[in-house]
Design a protein that fits this description.
- There is one protein chain.
- This protein is mainly alpha-helical.
- The protein has two domains: 14-170 and 312-323, Peroxidase, domain 1; 176-310, Peroxidase, domain 2 (Orthogonal Bundle).
- Helices cover 43% and strands 3% of the residues.
- It contains 13 helices and four strands.
- The chain has helices at 14-21, 42-56, 60-75, 103-117, 128-142, 176-184, 190-197, 211-215, 229-238, 262-268, 275-282, 284-295, 297-311, and strands at 156-157, 204-206, 248-250, 322-323.
């Protein structure tokens, strides 16, 4: 989830809001094996392409997960975040909140789409939105996370604007009320939010996202007191004052390449990188969930599968609201 990052800021237009939020029932069209007649091997084709990409660079894994989250949260799971800007339109991907999305996530979807379309019976039959959903599941599994069935049948969106990103991605400094409100508006519960936040067990962020916690937390208290002191000192060593903003730091200081419940164990120890991570433990309303999942990986995995399945239903496009893009980066 930047928030990685699965985890960004301002207000959907009324028209987009109608599509996103009153359009939730459209998810009823989603089902497993949606392409059984048109492209029966789509899952294995995508899996091979994703595995090849991951073998080239690990960044593929967190980049793809984060791309899925950013796509679904802004205008629904419709691959609109992949569309490139044109002379007459600044697209979602070029909004400041999306500029940190790693190119490997986009490349993963584009290569998987090419692999699918290379099969004659599958050509132009599978949406970019569905390929992103499948690729997200596949990278989670490749990182050691749980496997799960992916519901399919999404169409690709017909609009992608920078303005639609405003206020629709969680910030690194969000408190529990802000997190719950943003997730609830997408039909996701507090438990879903906490489970999805665990995607921060993978990948990295940048020092600029946490310097306020290390040096300017509040008058008279430069370091955020909820930060583990040893961890804070470690972060200060990696992120000195006036550090190059491109310097990257692992989101999970213990197992940054493994999808596991260490994220919650870190929160119990005061080692949440963002305020929006650590608040899940410091706020009594969410603490019990964190402590439970810190000690029970099976319970966490079950909750995560439920949460990411629900995330994949947000703002799904149907009928005239979407199509299947020939090129994921351009409208037909």
């Amino acid at each position: 989830m930047g928030r990685v990052n699965f985890l960004t800021s301002l207000i959907l237009s009324i028209s987009v809001g109608v599509i996103l939020f009153s359009g939730r029932p459209a998810s009823a069209q989603l089902r497993q094996n949606f392409y059984s007649n048109t492209c029966p091997d789509v899952e294995s084709i995508v899996r091979r392409a994703v595995s090849a990409k991951v073998s080239q660079t690990f960044v593929t894994i967190p980049a793809t997960i984060r791309l899925f989250f950013h796509d679904c949260f802004v205008s629904g799971c419709d691959a609109s975040v992949i569309v490139a800007s044109t002379g007459g339109n600044t697209a979602e991907k070029d909004h400041p909140d999306n500029l940190s999305l790693a190119g490997d996530g986009f490349d993963t979807v584009i290569k998987a789409k090419a692999a699918v379309d290379a099969v004659p019976r599958c050509k132009n039959k599978v949406s970019c939105a569905d390929i992103l959903a499948l690729a997200t599941r596949d990278v989670i599994v490749l990182a050691g996370g749980p496997t799960y069935p992916v519901e399919l049948g999404r169409l690709d969106g017909l609009s992608s604007t920078s303005a639609s990103v405003n206020g629709n991605l969680p910030k690194a400094n969000f408190n529990l009320n802000q997190l719950n409100s943003m997730f609830a508006s997408r039909g996701l519960t507090q438990a879903d939010m906490i489970a999805l936040s665990a995607c921060h067990t993978l990948g990295f962020s940048h020092c600029t996202q946490i310097t306020n916690r290390l040096y300017n937390f509040s008058p008279g208290t430069p370091v955020d007191p909820t930060l583990n002191r040893q961890y804070a000192t470690q972060l200060q060593g990696m992120c000195p004052r006036n550090v190059d903003p491109r310097v990257a730091i692992d989101m999970d200081p213990t197992s940054p390449r493994i999808f596991d419940n260490a994220y919650f164990q870190n929160l119990v120890q005061g080692k949440g990188l963002f305020t929006s991570d650590q608040v899940l433990f410091t706020d009594s309303r969410s603490r019990n969930t964190v402590t439970t999942w810190a000690s029970n990986s099976q319970a966490f995995n079950a909750a995560f599968i439920q949460a990411i399945t629900k995330l994949g239903r947000v703002g799904v496009k149907t009928g005239g609201n979407g199509n299947i893009r020939f090129d994921c980066g351009r409208f037909n």
